[in-house]
Amino acid sequence: MIQVQAYAAHSVKEPLAPFQFQRREPGPRDVLIDIHYCGVCHSDIHQVRDEWGGATFPMVPGHEIVGVVAQVGSQVTRFKVGDAVGVGCFVDSCRECSSCHEGLEQYCEKGANFTYNGVEKDGKTATQGGYSTQIVVDEKYTLRIPPQLPLDGAAPLLCAGITLYSPLKHWKAGPGKKVAILGLGGLGHMGVKLARAMGAEVTVLSHSMKKEGDSRRLGAHHFYSTSDAETFNQLSGSFDLILNTVSVNLDWDQYVNLLRRDGTLVLLGIPEKQVPVSAFPLVGARRSIAGSMIGGIAENQEMLDFCGKHGITSDIELIQIQKINEAYERVLRSDVRYRFVIDIQSLKKSN
Ligand code: NAP
Ligand code: ZN
Ligand code: ZN
User: Fold this and answer.
1) Which of 113, 34, 122 is closest to 345 using CA atoms?
2) Is the CB of 294 under 6 A from ligand 1?
3) CATH number 3.90.180.10 is the correct assignment for the domain at 2-159+314-349
4) 75 C-alpha to center of ligand 2: Å?
5) In principle, which of 89, 139, 304, 329 could form an S-S bond with 63, CB 3.0–4.6 Å?
């Protein structure tokens, strides 16, 4: 077994603290990865606080993992020691259902093996995430980081990047399409960069005016505050696609009204409570409300290659692991520009 240093949540109420555990020895198809950086996703906070239910402890969060291959199993063909690699939100899936066959492993009908707060393929060992020094993953679920991208800025692509890339592709964002990104946080700022690179006309809808300057710098053409009621009159019937990255409760009807005929409001953030939706604004203009979750392995690689080609990474604030609990509080206050990334070197001095 491989001894790993980490930070874990031990219960819903306690702050994250140093933790040690063991990972399996790499099998024939596994790669052992020395983790260099791990992004801090808002989903990490939802899960350590058990806001989605079913949390298991101790929990080592982290699913925006980048590092370097340290060892490969005897049958590994796609990677060699020294390669820059990434691991996203899941580390395996059933490989047999129609979703897995279609490269949509995130929607595996038996449930993908999520990177943490889940179980390994053996059905019993708890998966543990990237706030740790090393991880062992089947090469099929390991991604290649384009050499031109810095590893720290690339880490958030593994969740924030793919979560926006996948719906932008699915709903055909591109030249002639008007796309709104609702919420300029970790997910939202990647959405602006990706939609702009795909050629869409991009609008940011933010809950204050504070991020207006940033929004333009990130590539948005337009910026509006949703705390100004006039925004909803002015933009009525404007967008082909709205990607909602906000998890606080919003009045979805207000946003449906911002769609053009045949437009789609895609939910990415998940509010805790149910939200009522009126039929008329949907029926009257053939609009849709949809949801989307991360992306499959092939699409993750496509996204990373797209980012390599366009020089896209996340705007990050690099932190030491010892600052993780403070970082969570700042994410909750929307006080991060735009993603915390943990320098995993710092773990080596904490245990
Ligand atoms: P984040 O960095 O915290 O961003 C959320 C944004 O929501 C904030 O930056 C803020 O942007 C906006 N917001 C609107 N009203 C707010 C309020 N009252 N208080 C605080 N923020 C408010 O989070 P994230 O990492 O991007 O994740 C966003 C959500 O997506 C989370 O719920 C996460 O679990 C979920 N998620 C879903 C998937 C998926 O596959 N569907 C994947 C990853 C994460 P403004 O200041 O611009 O309003
Ligand atoms: Zn995430
Ligand atoms: Zn499956």
Assistant:
1) 34
2) yes
3) yes
4) 30
5) 89
Establish whether residue 163 lines the binding site of ligand 1, counting it when its CB lies within 6 angstroms of any ligand atom. yes
**Measured CA distances, 229 to 156, 225, 256, 261 (Å):** 33, 9, 15, 22
Is 70 exceeded by the pLDDT of residue 39?
yes
Q: For residue 351, is pLDDT > 70? A: no
Q: For residues 188 and 179, give the distance between their C-alpha atoms in angstroms, rounded to a whole number.
A: 12
State the fold for domain 161-291. Answer: Rossmann fold (3.40.50)
Q: What are the residue ranges spanned by the domains of the chain?
A: 2-159+314-349, 161-291
When pLDDT is averaged across residues 339-350 and rounded to a whole number, the result is 91
The predicted structure's pLDDT at residue 122: 93
Give me the pLDDT at residue 350, please.
55
- Which DSSP string do the residues of 54-114 spell out, in sequence order? ---SSB-----EEEEEEEE-TT--S--TT-EEEE-SEEE--S-SHHHHTT-GGG-TT--EE
Check if 47 has its Cβ closer than 6 Å to any atom of ligand 1.
no
Residue 270 CA: which ligand 1 atom is closest?
32
- pLDDT value at position 13? 84
Alpha-carbon distance values, 83 to 34, 76, 104, 241 (Å): 11, 13, 25, 37
Among 104, 207, 211, the mutation site with the greatest number of ligand 1 atoms within 8 A of its Cβ is: 207
What is the pLDDT averaged over residues 213-223? 98
Per-residue model confidence as pLDDT tens digits over 46-92: 999 999 899 999 999 999 999 999 999 999 999 999 999 999 999 99
Reported as a pLDDT band with limits 50, 70 and 90, residue 18 is very high
Query: Residue 297 in contact with residue 166, Cβ under 8 Å?
Result: no
User: Is the omega angle on the peptide bond into residue 271 within 30 degrees of 0, that is, cis?
Assistant: no
**Residue 14, Cβ neighbours under 10 Å: how many?**
13
Kindly give the distance from the C-alpha atom of residue 112 to the centroid of ligand 2, in angstroms, as a whole number: 15
DSSP string, 239-263: EEEEEE---S---HHHHHTTEEEEE
